[in-house]
Amino acid sequence: MNPLRINDTPGPDTRQAVRDVLYFMTDAFYAIASADSVTASESATLGAGHILAMCADALREADEGNG
Questions:
Q1: Are 55 and 21 in contact, with CB atoms under 8 Å apart?
Q2: Structural domains in the chain (count)
Q3: What pLDDT digit, counting tens, does each position of 7-31 carry?
């Protein structure tokens, strides 16, 4: 179950949830990039990858399988 996938469809509510997460991640990456002494840890990088995969899964159409 994907918490971003509203009513188990890639409809308008799901797309808005994914946009919100992507806007947050954009702000976070810009903040990290502008900080002088911050480096991404392995766990942070893995977490970002999981979040991006969750966004892609939330937008998956029914004919793409598993739906």
A1: yes
A2: 1
A3: 999 999 999 999 999 999 999 888 8
